[in-house]
Design goal:
Length: about 190
């Protein structure tokens, strides 16, 4: 147990069990650690703090039959994806340059040089937003454009994006409709059950 990864009674290393030097290093960075501790119970995230959500996603990753390199990428995406929600500006109108995915990407650019991995971290909520445009706001053309942009940017790592989206959505009390919608519309993914 180190001072850098502890706050109060929570030992973040013990909780998240980092598997690589990079994961351990991330947990020791103050702004990252602050993000892990952020959050209160809310719709979609009844668990509250970000680190608790990460644990749920990690549990889902454990259910997948994937290679070690794929698992390493999934864990990095999971650790970073929501950790900077505490910085996000949600004022209206939204400034999308201040989305937590952008902050997460900027943080991870200091640690990894894998362009598609960085794209997935930045765009991890885009499939949900595309579903929302189609299903809630009845804007099918805007939805199609957002989905096509996402698919173009994740490119050959579509399966990685999909697996993360599925693992992330199968947490808390999130509705599963966005994943089902994605599975019905996107060709070239191997659908998994969790």
């Amino acid at each position: 147990m180190t001072k850098e990864t502890m706050i109060g009674p929570i030992d973040m290393e013990a909780m998240l069990q980092p598997e690589t030097d990079l994961e351990r290093k991330m947990l020791k960075e103050e702004d990252f650690f602050k993000g892990l501790m952020w959050g209160t119970p809310r719709y979609g995230h009844p668990e509250g703090e970000i680190y608790k959500h990460i644990l749920e996603v990690f549990d889902n990753i454990e259910q997948l039959d994937i290679s070690k390199p794929m698992r390493r990428k999934m864990r990095l995406i999971t650790l970073a994806h929501d950790t900077f929600k505490y910085l996000e500006d949600k004022s209206t109108p939204r400034d999308w340059s201040k989305h937590h995915g952008i902050y997460a990407r900027r943080f991870m650019e200091k640690h990894v040089d894998e362009p598609t991995l960085l794209e997935i971290i930045e765009l991890h909520d885009e499939a949900y937003y595309a579903w929302r445009l189609d299903s809630l706001y009845h804007e099918p053309e805007a939805s199609k454009q957002k989905l096509n942009n996402l698919l173009k940017r994740v490119g050959e790592q579509l399966q990685l994006f999909y697996l993360f989206f599925k693992c992330d959505t199968k947490t808390g009390d999130k509705i599963q409709a966005p994943v089902k919608w994605f599975e019905q519309r996107v060709k070239g993914i191997d659908i998994v059950k969790l």
